[in-house]
Each structure stands twice: as structure tokens, then as C-alpha cells.
Amino acid sequence: MTPVTSTPEQIARGVQILREGGVVAFPTETVYGLGADALNEAAVAHVFALKGRPHHNPLIVHISGPEMALTLARSWGEREQRLAETFWPGPLTIIAPASDLVPRIVRANGPTIALRCPDHPITLALIEAFGGPLVGPSANRSGEVSPTTPDHVLASFPDLFVLDGGPARAGIESTVVRLLPDRALVLRQGLITPEQLRSVLALPVEIAPAPSPGEDLGSPGRLPRHYAPSTPARLLSRVEILAIAGRRVVVLAASPLDAAPGRVVLAMPSNARAYASRLYAALREADALGMELIAIERPDPSGPEAEVWHAVLDRLERACA
Ligand code: TXA
Ligand code: MG
Fold this sequence. Notes:
This protein is α/β, with parallel strands linked by helices and 321 residues long. The protein is built from ten helices and 14 strands. The strands form two sheets. A ten-stranded mixed beta sheet has the order 7-1-2-6-3-5-4-8-9-10, sandwiched between helices. It has a four-stranded parallel beta sheet with strand order 11-14-12-13. Strand 1 (24-26) and strand 2 form a beta hairpin. Helix 1 (8-19) crosses helix 5. Magnesium ion binds next to loops.
């Protein structure tokens, strides 16, 4: 059970801050977001500045349902609507052509907008009471591990007003999908899997290949180093981990492993969705131990949960890049 601790008074306070052009952190099912009025350029600029986010990386816009998409997207077809009806509220971000209403800063001067309806009662209530769309990048400084609790947000932004929605259930950022005439492209993998998208769209679904150096990134969440702790981290096999000697290491292990001199073990779930839910908190705990190395036992992405494991591995590879 997610303890939901923000009160209606706190949501009203959040709305007031947003109306004044301020920034509020809000809970979602994936990670906490840094919210501001998506139609107020100065408020959005403040979000970029707080995060230290480069202006060429566009923001996701959070809405309370497909009706709001109709004013923000220049076109919203039958396929987009079907995805929204199937997966919203939930961890799917849909890229659509942007309407003139959307400030250029939100979309990093590009022609498209990223739209998502988060599955959290507090944030849905916040958007409804505010009466408009909110930008919501993850509430961390650019490049850091995304926050899954209010304490994580406050560690980066001690003075921020944070709506407390308890720990985020899903734990990794939403799947980002772009529809092309003959196929769909997954720009960021997440808990809505290519197989789920394929079954709804009846189209081929491809995972966008890693960008080559200097290439337009399409979705800058694809930067090789992202979601990274400050302690060096490496993805290793169990055998490699057991062979580490003479270094102070913290191990994230999904299979049983004993602590040893110089070795602290954080046990990770063996189920892919539970692993995702725990991942960022575990990376932060591991980082806080101040060891020389974070060794992450490489999960085996096979079996029925393979696509979820691939989304997890994507984050692990970036944490280790
Ligand atoms: O789960 C999530 O999506 C979280 C929670 C708070 O909702 N938000 C989040 O936002 O992860 P952010 O800003 O940290 O990540 C946005 C991702 C980036 O990879 C960005 O490049 C991509 O979405 N993106 C945003 N607008 C885009 C656009 N118009 N076209 C392509 N990619 C876009
Ligand atoms: Mg982020």
C-alpha cells in the first residue's frame, strides 16, 4: 500500500504556487517530477535552471487525461487515442506534433510534444485543480539518479515544496513512444513493454538504437551517462563480483550473496518489476556508503519478464557508463 500523505490543503497550496509561476515537486507512479505551469515560459525556464538541464532536452508535459491532449497536440489520431485509453493513467509518454499553444522552451524548439497522464491520485488532483498541463521532468539535477521518495527530492532541492505521495511504485521513468506511419519507435524503455504496445497498435514496434556520437538524440534520456550515482558503478557477473579483492565494494545482488570483509551486500528482488521499483533507492543507498565501487550483478534478461529486464538493464548501463 502506498501511504498517501498529502492533504487537500497541501494540494491547494501546490496550486497556488503553480499559479504564481513557481515550482512544486509531485509524486507519480514512476519517479517524482518537478512541476510547473507548462504554458508559462518563465516558470518552465525556472525548471530548466533548477535541474541544470540543457535547453536542447525537451520536457514531458503531464495532463489529467486525453481531453487535455487535444489542445496541446496539433494532431491526435486514432492510434494515439487508443494508446491513451489503454495505458493512461500510467507509465507511457506519447510523442505527438505540438500545437502553437505549447511554448518553444517546453519542446526545445522542436515540432513535437511529449504527453503523459501519471497514475497517481495526488498529481491527477493537482492537475485538475490547477486546470492545465504541467511540465514534469524527474525531480533531480540533470544526470543524477531519479527520485522515488520525497526525501530523495529534498536531498537535491531542500527548499522545494514537495507533495508527498509515498514511495513511487514503478520506480523507473515512463516508456516514451513515437508513432511513425508504418511503425512505432520506443525512444525510452519502461514498464509498458514493446509487446504491450504491439498488441494495441497492431504495428511493428522497434526500440530506437543507441545514438552514435554527435547524432541528434531524438530523446536525450538516451544520453549514455544518465541516472548515475557519484560512486563508480559497474555491471558484473556473479563470478566477477566474487573475484573482486582488496577493494571496498557494495554489491547490488539479485541472487543470494554473503557479506565479506570489505563487501556490503544490498539484496535486490529477483522479479523484474520489483527490481525496478527498488533500483533507484538502492543506488542512492549504495552511493551513500562511500565505498570505492558499486558492483551490480548483471540481471539475466530472459524469461517472461525479459522486456522489463531490458528496461532495467538500460538504466543500469547508464548508471555504469
Ligand atoms: O516517468 C517519467 O516520465 C517522469 C515522471 C516525473 O513523469 N518524467 C521524466 O521526465 O522522466 P524527464 O524530463 O526526466 O524525461 C523526459 C524524457 C527525456 O528522455 C526527453 O528527451 C524525452 O522524454 N522527451 C521529452 N520531450 C520529447 C519530445 N518532444 N520528443 C522526444 N523525446 C522527448
Ligand atoms: Mg530525468
